[in-house]
Design brief:
There is one protein chain. The chain is mostly helical. It has one domain. It has six helices and no strands. The protein is elongated, with a radius of gyration of 19 Å.
Length: about 220
């Protein structure tokens, strides 16, 4: 079993399909709204800045909870799996960031064609990439914690929140995490390094949990 190839071909393809379907739904929603009132907001920005990061988190959870037992059943080691998963989180985050930015470009053309109000500032593509990167890696850690410790995995949630809270600081509209609204801008230029370190720390914590975790193998 080629772990990296399995994760990328399955989840990246799935992610692109989901992104395309979601974008179509956003366009349909905007046209429906335009029948009743003036369009002033970007529907896609809500998806790219808030919903997509949870999708990246889910991808990390899926990798540990579903694919790890299959990989072990095929004779792969936990170390091999975590290395492949680290590479996968980069590719998946990049693919989702490309989808997000393509969505903004197409939506911008549509807004101009329909003479709707400006969508506002969306930030930079790399900001979305770093945010998705941190969330995907955090998903692997949280999933590993719950799979190994059961209900005790809830203790990983505050750590996971700390890992992702700064990652969206340069993504407009992403600062409203549950119970935490309008996260203050405290990091300045250090935001890039903090987001990258969060990715490394999340993967490191996931490895510490996974390397001693008993796994019940699953058949394909």
């Amino acid at each position: 079993m080629k772990i990296f190839r399995h994760l990328t071909t399955t989840l990246v393809t799935y992610g692109v399909i989901i992104a395309g379907c979601t974008f179509a739904l956003c366009v349909a929603t905007v046209f429906a709204v335009s029948s009743f009132t003036e369009v002033q907001l970007s529907a896609w920005s809500v998806v790219a800045a808030q919903i997509a990061r949870w999708f990246c988190l889910w991808a990390g959870v899926y990798a540990i909870h579903t694919v790890l037992p299959i990989a072990i059943a095929h004779g792969r080691t936990r170390r091999e799996f975590m290395v492949a998963t680290a590479e996968f989180t980069v590719v998946f985050a990049l693919a989702m960031a490309v989808c997000a930015w393509l969505g903004f470009l197409v939506e911008g053309g549509l807004y101009s064609l329909m003479d709707w109000s400006s969508q506002g500032d969306h930030g930079q593509p790399y900001a979305y990439f770093l945010m998705y990167l941190a969330w995907g890696a955090t998903g692997t850690f949280v999933s590993a914690a719950f799979d190994r410790f059961g209900p005790g995995g809830v203790l990983s949630l505050p750590i996971g929140l700390l890992l992702v809270i700064a990652s969206g600081e340069r993504v407009p509209g992403s600062g409203e995490l549950p119970f935490i609204r309008n996260v203050p801008v405290l990091l300045g230029a250090g935001w890039h390094a903090v987001s990258f370190v969060a990715w490394l720390v999340a993967l490191g914590l996931a490895w510490l949990v996974v390397r001693e975790m008993p796994v019940r193998t699953k058949a394909l």
